[in-house]
Design goal:
The structure is a single chain. Helix content is about 30%, strand content about 15%. The protein has about 160 residues and is an alpha/beta fold. A four-stranded parallel beta sheet has the order 4-3-5-6, sandwiched between helices. A two-stranded antiparallel ribbon has the order 1-2. The chain starts with 7 loop residues before the first strand and ends in a 17-residue tail after the last helix.
């Protein structure tokens, strides 16, 4: 039996998914299988070597957690438009497909999906940061803004 939504009624574990659909864990695994993910130190070195470091976190999350100096701020909801070289809404830096792009979010989940979407646009050198901003900060790499502990920021 199906409902107007095309889903069968919920069982003990929730609604039965449509045939052929993927769960978020499947999507994340598939995205990460295509990426050469970087640890925070590797991402920092890539950025210093010319890769574009892209922070896709919402403004409120950046305000609460802090930010990475030199990172380009492009919220997730507009990322594809800003990085598609064919788009009239693209950023000037996104004018070629061989651009090395390193995406990060707060913990490294959303950024994996975002980097895979950039690869779908043709950015084969797009990847993300394992552990996101949280891992970046814990690695002692440059940040500015709020912290969750009482230690002072290094200059």
């Amino acid at each position: 039996m199906s409902t107007a939504t095309g889903l069968r009624p919920a069982g003990p574990a929730g609604p039965v998914p449509p045939v052929g659909s993927l769960g978020i864990d499947d999507l994340l695994t598939a995205a990460r299988a295509r990426l050469r993910r970087l640890d925070p130190e590797g991402a920092h070195l890539a950025h210093r070597g010319g890769a574009v470091l892209v922070d896709i976190r919402p403004a409120a999350q950046r305000a609460a957690s802090g930010a990475v100096p030199g990172a380009l701020l492009v919220e997730r909801n507009v990322l594809e438009w800003r990085f598609d070289p064919r788009s009239s809404a693209r950023l000037p830096v996104a004018d070629r497909y061989d651009l090395p792009v390193v995406v990060f979010c707060e913990e490294g989940y959303t950024s994996s999906l975002a980097a895979a979407a950039l690869q779908d646009l043709g950015h084969r050198r797009a990847t993300d940061v394992v552990g996101g901003f949280t891992a970046w900060r814990l690695a002692g790499l440059p940040t500015f803004g709020p912290r969750s502990d009482s230690k002072e920021e290094a200059p």
